[in-house]
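ok so for the tutorial part 2 we go from a plain amino acid sequence to predicted structure tokens. step 1 is just haveing the sequence, like this:
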Amino acid sequence: MIHRRDFLRHTSWVALSSGTLLEYASAQDSKYVVAQTSFGQVRGIDSNGIKIFKGIPYGASTAGANRFMPPQDPAKWTGVRDALQYGQSAPQRDPAAAPPSNGNLTVSGSNLPAEGEDCLVLNIWTPAINDGHKRPVMFWCHGGGFSSGSGSSPDNDGTNLARRGDVVVVTINHRLNVLGFANLSEFSTDFAASGDAGMMDIVHALRWVRTNIGQFGGDPNTVMIFGQSGGGRKVETLLAMPSAKGLFHRATIESGAALRVAGREIAIKNADRLLAKLNIPKSGVHDIQKIPVDKIMAAYFAVVRESPGVDQSIDGFAPTVDGRILPQHPFDPAASPVSAGVPVMIGCTRTEMTLFSLNDAAAFSLDDDGLRTRVKSLLGDHSGSLIDLYRKLNPGAKPSDIYFLIASDYRYGAPTMKIAERRAALGKGPVYLYYFRWETPVQGGRLKSPHTMEIPFAFDNVKISSRLTGGGEAAMALADKLSDTWIAFARTGNPNTPKLPHWPALDAKDRATMVIDNTSSVVNDPLKEQRIAMNRAMNLS
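step 2 — the prediction. this is what the tokens look like for a chain of 541 residues:
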């Protein structure tokens, strides 16, 4: 027997995922609703009680004279503007590459709308409009590093979350990669902010929320920013931006590890290489606003291809520490004090790196020599001692299992714990640390707890994301707990609910951590030996 609530959790997005089904939903289950924004009225739909608005512009097109410039307000409109379909995704595809296949495991970069520079749009899911209530606002920053993805991914549909928690969900698109983070400031003062334009877009969207979200039933004084992977990095960067201070009041970081972003020297070097690929002299840098966007994207991908193995979130086209828009790295050498009072919830999954190895069959069948070769490429002379430690702590684990644990802690686990430690050391807003161990049954269970795993549970979308979660009863039960946890944190700045054990804030002595599984528990410093060894190997003091 299917209960009505579970039916809605399964079908709410499906009824809105294509033009044909949208018409069916409108005719059978929905009615139009109109809301006022500071730029004009927008028309959405009411689908089984949740009001949905898609593709609302919060900024003007970023093409032409607005390219590489700070975001501008959209022009006001008269009449009622339809907000029934997602707006454009930010340009992110290599013009020379084949279109990406749909249906893969990633939950931020598949089944996306068309790309274009008129991409400063947001989407809203809300239980009510203009009813005088002040609901928590859950403002999602999508993943994909700083280079790809979209807030319009089907997996980020906010219907179930809005219904479950009586909250307002907002997802956004913003400039990415070269268009969002090419630092041209060395070549013209007109482009002084170009290295952080994509982050300034997000701040602009948060200002839109502050001004307009009350019309959509939300409370502008109770805004949680949250994001996974690149979205988590964006949340971490927002915590260090003076222009974002006061626009949000809680922050959740899911598998995002931005101790550092790009330094000015590497950012200018990348921009120099970009202009060379475009055959634009530095004295003629303004010509970059006049050429076709595909030409810029092709040059960007050429620059990236010449830097194999480079972490594009640090040494590529990423936010720049410029001393003004972004005064310092988010968590290096210490946590930024800019929004120190904001409560933070942060964590990672146990085997993040299995997701990144889907096209690397050998990674799942390593022998001892293969294990040692791969770990040495990450940790050099520390590799032997790390392998011995992880084998001691995981008796019976196969070489591939040991590799994924070490690689995941190197890339995410150790930086995440260091970020939590440095944030808690500010002694102001509380920090809540989690470690996600739940294992997905898909692909025969070989992925265990992969990167992106938290997203469907936070959004209560395990059915929509069944290709990642399996969509079974265990996943549904865990989503019931975790969605409420994320909602509680959005509402109060404290993630505690009766559905999980009491979760203390992090301190340097106990390092209390919520270990998330079918049966979750709070464990003090659950990865202590791995943490200490990895910090030593990575020189994380």
